[in-house]
C-alpha cells in the first residue's frame, strides 16, 4: 500500500478516536466489493440494460394484487443481480464496520444497500434507507417482517397490525423513503460529528444531504472509496482504496492506539 494511504489510515484512525459520535454512510461500492453489480457507472446494470421504470411505485399502488402476481410469476429484469444477491457474502469492509461497532467507536450505519450483508456480518445499529430485500413492509404503519415468515395466503397480503397493504421492503422508484428510516437518519446525522463515507458518491437524495449537514455543523468527513466522488472536495481524510482493504487497517490502528 502506498505511503500516502498509510498516512491517511493514521489520520482516519485518529479522527475516529477523537470523535464523539461516528456514523458510517454506506453505498453500492461496498456491495460491489462482494460481487453485487451496481446500477450506475460504465458497468452498471442501467447502462447495460436501459433505465429503470420510474413509475414502479405508481403501478404498485394502482393494482397491488397484480403487482404481487407479477412478482411471484415473472423472472427478474436483472437475473444477474438476483443471482449475485442470492450468493453474496460480506467482505472485509463489512466486517471492519462490525469490528468498529464492537470497539465502541462506530455508533450507527446508514446504508443505501438492500442486500442484508451488514446484518450477516454482525452489525447491529443499522438504518436501511432503501429497505432490505429479505423483508416485507406495511406501507401504512411500516411494520416489517422476514419475507419467509409472512403468510402469503392472499394477494396483496395485508398487515396483521393495521390492515394496510404489504409490499417488499425494498424501496421502489417513485416510492417515498419510509418515514421511520428517514427520521432515524435525520436523528443519527444530527448527533454525528464524524461521518465515514464508504463506497458512496452520495449523489442520490436523501443520502446526499447527510454529509453536508455534518460538515456544516463543524464535523469531519472521511471518504473510503477507490474513486473520486462529488464529495471528495469536502472531505477531511481520503482513503483512496477499496473498503475491504482500507477499513481493516483502520480498525487495526484504532485497536493499537487503545491497547
Ligand atoms: Zn400496518
Which structural traits does this protein have?
alpha/beta, binds zinc ion, 259 residues, 40% helix, three-stranded antiparallel beta sheet, six-stranded parallel beta sheet, single chain
Bound molecules: zinc ion
What's the number of extended β-strand segments? 9
Helices, by number, come to 11
Helicity, as a percent range: 40-55%
State which percent range the strand residues make up. Answer: 5-15%
Strand order, sheet with most strands: 3-2-1-7-8-9
How would you describe the shape? globular
- Parts with pLDDT < 50 across at least 5 consecutive residues: none
Order of helices and strands: HEHHHHHHEHEEEEHEHEEH
Written overview of the protein:
This protein is of the alpha/beta class. It has eleven helices and nine strands. It has helices spanning 3-17, 28-32, 45-49, 56-62, 64-73, 79-87, 92-102, 117-121, 179-191, 209-216, 243-258; strands spanning 22-26, 108-111, 126-128, 135-138, 144-146, 166-168, 194-198, 220-224, 237-239. The chain has a six-stranded parallel beta sheet, sandwiched between helices. Strand 4 (135-138) and strand 5 form a beta hairpin. Helix 1 packs across helix 11 (243-258) and helix 7 (92-102) runs parallel beside helix 11 (243-258). The longest helix is centred in the last third of the chain and has 16 residues, at 243-258. It starts with a helix and ends with a helix. The model has no long low-confidence stretch (mean pLDDT 92). Residues 138, 140-141, 143, 159, 161-162, 164 line the site of zinc ion.
Amino acid at each position: 500500500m502506498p505511503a500516502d494511504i498509510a498516512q491517511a489510515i493514521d489520520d482516519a484512525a485518529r479522527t475516529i478516536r477523537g470523535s464523539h459520535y461516528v456514523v458510517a454512510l454506506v453505498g453500492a461500492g461496498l456491495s460491489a466489493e462482494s460481487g453485487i453489480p451496481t446500477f450506475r457507472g460504465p458497468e452498471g446494470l442501467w447502462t447495460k440494460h436501459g433505465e429503470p421504470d420510474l413509475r414502479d411505485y405508481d403501478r404498485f399502488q394502482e393494482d397491488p394484487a397484480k403487482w404481487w402476481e407479477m412478482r411471484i410469476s415473472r423472472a427478474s429484469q436483472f437475473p444477474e443481480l438476483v443471482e449475485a444477491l442470492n450468493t453474496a457474502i460480506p467482505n472485509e469492509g463489512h466486517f471492519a464496520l462490525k469490528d468498529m461497532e464492537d470497539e465502541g467507536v462506530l455508533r450507527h450505519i446508514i446504508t443505501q444497500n438492500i442486500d442484508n450483508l451488514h446484518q450477516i456480518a454482525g452489525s447491529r445499529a443499522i438504518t436501511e434507507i432503501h429497505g432490505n430485500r429479505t423483508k416485507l413492509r406495511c406501507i401504512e404503519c411500516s411494520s416489517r417482517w422476514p419475507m419467509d415468515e409472512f403468510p402469503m395466503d392472499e394477494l396483496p397480503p395485508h398487515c396483521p397490525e393495521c390492515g394496510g397493504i404489504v409490499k417488499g421492503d425494498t424501496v421502489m422508484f417513485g416510492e417515498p423513503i419510509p418515514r421511520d428510516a428517514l427520521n432515524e437518519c435525520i436523528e443519527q446525522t444530527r448527533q454525528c460529528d464524524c461521518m465515514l463515507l464508504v463506497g458512496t458518491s452520495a449523489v442520490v437524495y436523501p443520502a446526499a444531504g447527510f454529509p453536508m449537514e455534518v460538515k456544516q455543523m463543524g464535523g469531519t468527513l472521511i471518504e473510503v472509496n477507490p474513486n473520486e466522488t462529488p464529495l471528495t472536495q469536502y472531505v477531511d481524510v481520503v482513503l483512496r482504496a477499496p473498503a475491504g482493504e482500507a477499513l481493516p487497517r483502520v480498525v487495526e490502528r484504532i485497536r493499537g492506539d487503545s491497547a
